[in-house]
Amino acid sequence: MTTMPPAGDKAAPRGLALDRLLTLGDHSDEHGRLLLEDSASRGAQKRAKRAGVPMRSERCQYPDSPSRQGGEMNVSAYEALRHDLTEVLDGFAWLAERYQQVHPSGRSTLQGLLDVSNLGTTLPLVLFHRSEDPVPPHGALPSPVASIFKASRGIFSAAIDLLNRTSDASQALAAADVVGFAEANGHFRRRETGRVCAAPTRMIERAIHAILIGHGADPARSALDELLAFAELWAFYVRHNSFSQASSTYKFVLGNLTEGGDVGPEELLGASVQVDGRTWAFGDFTQAFVDHANLVQAELNHVLGRADPGPPMSMDAVLRLL
Prior knowledge:
Blueprint: H1 18-22, H2 42-50, E1 57-59, E2 72-74, H3 75-102, H4 110-129, H5 143-166, H6 175-184, H7 201-213, H8 224-227, H9 230-258, H10 265-270, E3 272-275, E4 278-281, H11 282-303, H12 315-319
Antiparallel strand pairs: 1-2, 3-4
Helix pairs in contact: 3-4, 3-5, 3-7, 4-5, 4-9, 6-7, 9-11
């Protein structure tokens, strides 16, 4: 016999699959701007243009950024960011202040830059997917939150590259160092399309200052306090990051096994691999990765207040996330 919730009570929404919890599609902000901008689907971009969302492009002429010279940039996206700049800087300072309360040693370090920018990319996921008072996927997300997300994506990408090249997350950083690294290593220009970041160099440096040391911003002014609790964001981030790290390890191991050419399924699954000092059959290692993905999915749904752990993830479904 099914027990119905008491009259007036609203049942918590069902759990979501991991791919929905961890990715954005054609989501937009309060002005209809796509969170993924030029990376959104062509259909979404066409719909946005038909709805009157400005998507004007120009050739970049920033004299302090040789890597961007002549590249096509989304001027409309920059104008939205410029309008939101004070709230974006205050939001980064809010994230950094609360993060540093959890990890004081992260101040002014590459690890802090990684974590705070990753928190910035996580913000919309929590707001869109939480069970209580979720933000609708289209036309409602505050524009400054969308701008924090967009800025965070670029900063996080450069920070990951810096970590991969130096293997020292504890290194002290200045904003100018990060901007110089990004300029020298092509992070302001997308290889696939040649399109370039539209934010002026000084604006990018100010955002990184706010993340590293709170310079030029005031966390007390940020509206993020009214939108969500940092504890919820942090709990989601920790689990999201756990899956990201497990995915990176799995892809690394798989790449080593297949770099020599075609490997049959039986040979691949039976191959012996060593991970963190433990020897596995690759098939068992794969199953452990799938189990971890299902655990993370269940935990994320719980953090968001959803009613169940979501649909069980098959091996094929998990591997499609890589």
